[in-house]
Request: fold
Amino acid sequence: MYVLANEPSVALYRLQEHVRRSLPELAQHKSDMQSWEEQSQGAIYTVEYACSAIKNMTDSSVYFKSIDSLLKHAIAMKDQLNAAQGRSTTAPQAKNPPASS
Reply:
């Protein structure tokens, strides 16, 4: 009995039996891991893209400040032009009073 239990062919048979039983489960785990890897790679790409977009937004604050300054300057110039046009259109009317009838 001891010789029979330790025979190499019996050990190889037991090994083959174990592999045959566990291989489908291992193949399923491998498939699941590959699927999770694809999903995590997609999530990593999304996070990296979002981080770069946020960095670009913070880097562009200088440009937004410049645009704000230019817009304020343009509004002030427009107000000055409107004031100058208002004086030029009201000035001739003040010099020429309405004629009495």
Q: What stands out?
A: The CA atoms of residues 49 and 55 lie 10 Å apart.
